[in-house]
Amino acid sequence: MTEDVLNWIKKEKLMTEGDTVIVGLSGGADSVALLLVLLELRQRIGYTLLAIHVEHGIRGEESRKDAAFVEELCRQKNIPCRICPVNVPDYAATEGIGVEEAARILRYECYQKAAEELKQSGAGSVSIALAHHANDNAETVLFQMARGSGVHGMCGMHPKRVLGDDILIVRPLLCVSRGQIEEYLKKCGQEYRTDGTNLDINYSRNRIRHHILPELSVINEQAVSHINQSALLLQQAVSYMEQETKKAVQTCCIGGGGAYVILENEWKQYPEIIRQEIVHEVLGKTAGSRKDLGMVHVQDVCALMEKQTGREITLPYQMTASRIYEGVRLCQSGTHKAGTGTWQEKGGCETESAAGASQSFYEVTADDFAKLEAGETVSITLPDANVSLRLLLFSGKVDEIPKNQYTKWLNYDKIKVGLQIRTRTAGDYLTVDDRGHTKKLKEYFINEKVPKEMRDTMLLLTEDSHVIWAVGQRISADYKIDENTKKILEVHFFGGNYHESKEY
Prior knowledge:
six-stranded mixed beta sheet, 24 strands, 3 domains, elongated, Rossmann fold, alpha+beta, 504 residues, Chorismate Mutase Domain, subunit A, 16 helices
């Protein structure tokens, strides 16, 4: 078994010379075998070992005996050991989650804290080695299938994942079965502790372990191995799909700060599997986590694309999905953040409206401009509108300039100070002709017979006091495309009242 693990470590690059390896040591068969194998390989690879035991506070005296066993084993093997006591029942009750989930969260917190302390003390790369094996991986695949988690869940466990800066979670035993582990411990004459809760079939994983996997092995004795092989193939397929999804999200999704819009026309250009992945990705972005977001939620959002404007559904993490004119808007309750800036309300600003009226604005930040220059689309979600910004190279063909009410091409080279999206304030003006004549915005509103009730709420794209575009109206002559234009800033407003209803 030792050579199998060594080859797996090398193949997956789980640890290298000079690393510090933290072993999650419960005292059970799997973690004890992991400790012994890594101890055998320590000199051949050249890492430092540290064992951490998390005492969950669940099983009373039995838990304390587990901790004592681990301490004695590490003393015999001359391996540093830390005991981390936690109170899983209290944490589970406080957070309103199951005991299993609470235990997992607190374990990882202990491991990560230890790893970060090692980093602070001058350690190089730190790996947290966990004792999951092939049977565990098969259980995970079946469990995720039963939960309807989609292809991501069916990928099972990954050999390694990044936890933090130069901190990895690694699984050196994924290449071996539970049977191989038990045979290895028997050969070593090594005892281990047995957790009685692992026999409780009220836990879903235990039911899979003790009932379903044995039945599958009757059908085919290589069932566990085949499930692991399938999971590995799925990991490769999903990795490719994720690359394609990230490209697609750039094309058909705008937004940020917990609020996103999936654009229907662009989204429908992709195959169904990629459309589902786009939705899953954006759900995760909106929620800040993919946990508990299964295929049922993805399918609900996909179905919403076929519904009438105004339809809305609720989702986990206090999310809502709303059918809007342009597609589906996803947001968390109370979210109005946009891109790297924030839509703000300033009271008591000097405005052209009634005294004391508020002014709303969004400042396009340096980070936003950097994204534009890098070829990315900057997406902005405002309380009553969505905005996308992107840079284009001008072909010189004037007939390509869009004439839509809420999509404009602007001469990017003329923007020197910065950009704001806001409502009006005193001193606003725009250039009305090619000779440079200017007009106060108030005067423009009067001449164009813009209703008074619209003047204070109309959004403006501005550079300081210079109005580049009164949205839905005209753009300033200074920012129009001409024969000398090199770069175009495309600005698109949509959602709310901003629908392409006519051409200008």
